[in-house]
Write a structure and sequence with these properties.
Distance between the termini of chain A: 54 Å
Helix content of chain B: 55-70%
Radius of gyration of chain B: 42 Å
Radius of gyration of chain A: 19 Å
Shape of chain A: elongated
Largest interface: A-B, 46 and 32 residues
Largest sheet of chain B: 4 strands, mixed
Strand content of chain A: under 5%
Number of strands of chain B: 4
Number of helices of chain B: 12
Number of helices of chain A: 9
Order of helices and strands of chain B: HHHHHHHHHHEHEEHE
Structural class of chain A: mainly alpha
Strand order of the largest sheet of chain A: 1-2
Structural class of chain B: alpha+beta
Helix content of chain A: 55-70%
Number of strands of chain A: 2
Distance between the termini of chain B: 117 Å
Strand order of the largest sheet of chain B: 1-4-3-2
Oligomer: heterodimer
Order of helices and strands of chain A: HHHHHEEHHHH
Largest sheet of chain A: 2 strands, antiparallel
Chain lengths: 197, 267
């Protein structure tokens, strides 16, 4: 199957092809979802190295347990589930060793090739509203990193990944009511911490 | 205001549209006429939009190649995880097993017989050697051997919580044993207590028994033993200590075994 055709194939079909031994189908799945998996892991861990490892391990786990995927949920839900679990484990691992990964408001974030860039271009001239928004997002990013990981999970899944409450409940293996109250508390916590700025 | 309290918890779900239609409609109507709730909703929307605007991080270019590399690596079995590398994991695990087994065995081991009972059992033999042939009543050397033999049992007993009370009674270990022949146990007890007090010691045994434990300064032990034995042999009264104990001197225990006086042979 050529590349163009692969890009049009649904996730379910690619999973079926993987099960049949098609290595290319798995590569397509990885290429299609690597950015999503990496970004979720990164938003939860705020560390490129850890996020890369977690996202890669998630695909390795998917490859090795492809036969157990029953198709009861979307492939992306399954992927989210694994990424969130692994990120949670990694976070606990650091927490037990007394190393909380925190990002300060002024911290520059390292990029993939080792260079360091300021995440938001506040130096570029622009309308006041844009600058304010950029500063707001930068502050919000730091405040997000200071939230408990349980709050970060629901906010990332809802506002970054645009998952519905039902999908989040499947990913986190909890009830929709729990998701609803956790999102409300997480947003209130974030709102209050932003008010202190 | 009570309406505000009712809907506050639902405002987050309201901005996500994750509520039943009638509830959404009711909250929308309330927010239109309540400035406080409208401000709350605006803040929640701003925060949500801010989260969505956080720039997405991009994975490294070699992401797929690294995944493929990881897939080529053999899976780590539980045997590998637990035992490899063998050179340092196996000795460590063996040591841990030994420690655990020793701990369990020590815990399950029955409490040894109290040393006082052991001493009682063996004392008649010692006494027989002392009393035969008008030997001095102070059975220092044999008693030392006897107590030495009993020491391991005592130390074990002291380590086990179940026999702690008994261990407390036994502490400190007697260094000497005096055998006294008398007709009245009560008299010997009173005399022993008085003598012990005069030598800055004390009688430890409260129960009415023929084995008394006395604790006194180490330097006073010979005086105590000779005077108690002398009283028995010559029927003399007790004398006060010749010299007082030194300050901070270690306290030691002396065991006094009271033996019924032998009946006088009829003429």
């Amino acid at each position: 199957m050529d590349g163009v055709a692969q890009s049009e194939v649904s996730d379910r079909e690619l999973v079926a092809q993987c099960r049949a031994g098609d290595e290319q189908a798995f590569d397509t799945l990885v290429r299609r979802h690597q950015a999503r998996a990496f970004n979720v892991a990164y938003q939860l861990l705020r560390d490129r190295e850890d996020a890369t490892e977690v996202a890669q391990d998630a695909f390795v786990r998917i490859y090795r347990s492809m036969d157990t995927f029953r198709g009861e949920c979307e492939f992306t839900t399954w992927l989210h589930q694994i990424v969130v679990n692994l990120a949670h484990n990694r976070h606990r691992w650091w927490h037990r060793r007394g190393r909380e990964k925190m990002v300060s408001i002024d911290a520059a974030l390292p990029t993939g090739d080792g260079a360091v860039e300021v995440q938001l271009p506040a130096t570029t001239p622009g309308p006041d509203a844009e600058v304010v928004k950029a500063e707001f997002v930068q502050t919000l990013t730091a405040k997000m990193a200071a939230l408990p990981v349980g709050f970060r999970e629901v906010l990332v899944l809802r506002n970054v990944e645009n998952l519905s409450y039902e999908e989040i409940a499947v990913v986190l293996k909890c009830s929709i009511g729990t998701v609803k109250s956790r999102i409300a508390r997480a947003r209130d916590a974030l709102r209050e911490s932003m008010q202190h700025e | 205001m009570s309406e505000c309290r009712d809907i506050t918890n639902d405002l987050s779900a309201f901005i996500d549209g994750e509520l039943p239609a009638d509830r959404l409609k009711a909250i929308a109507a309330h927010v239109e006429r309540c400035s406080a709730c409208a401000a709350h909703v605006a803040e929640l929307r701003r925060v949500s939009a801010g989260i969505a605007a956080i720039p997405a991080a991009q994975p490294p270019p070699q992401f797929l190649a690294d995944v493929r590399q990881k897939l080529r690596q053999p899976r780590t079995s539980w045997v590998d995880a637990w035992f490899r590398p063998v050179w340092w994991k196996l000795p460590l695990e063996a040591m841990a097993v030994v420690v655990i087994v020793a701990g369990v065995m020590a815990w399950l081991r029955p409490a040894p017989a109290p040393v006082t009972a052991m001493a009682k059992r063996d004392v008649p033999a010692v006494k027989a050697r002392i009393l035969d042939g008008e030997q001095p009543a102070v059975a220092a050397a044999p008693a030392r051997e006897l107590l030495k033999a009993a020491e391991p049992a005592m130390s074990t007993a002291m380590e086990l919580p179940s026999v702690k009370a008994e261990a407390d009674e036994m502490r400190p270990a007697p260094v000497e044993t005096v055998v006294v022949r008398a007709e009245s146990l009560v008299d010997v007890r009173l005399q022993t207590e008085t003598l012990a007090k005069s030598l800055e010691g004390r009688l430890e045994t409260e129960a009415p028994t023929n084995v008394l434990l006395v604790v006194l300064p180490q330097s006073q032990v010979p005086v105590f033993c000779s005077r108690l034995a002398g009283k028995d042999r010559a029927g003399r009264g007790l004398k006060p200590a010749l010299a007082g104990a030194r300050k901070g001197e270690p306290m030691v225990a002396v065991k006094v075994v009271v033996e019924p006086a032998a009946a006088k042979p009829s003429p």
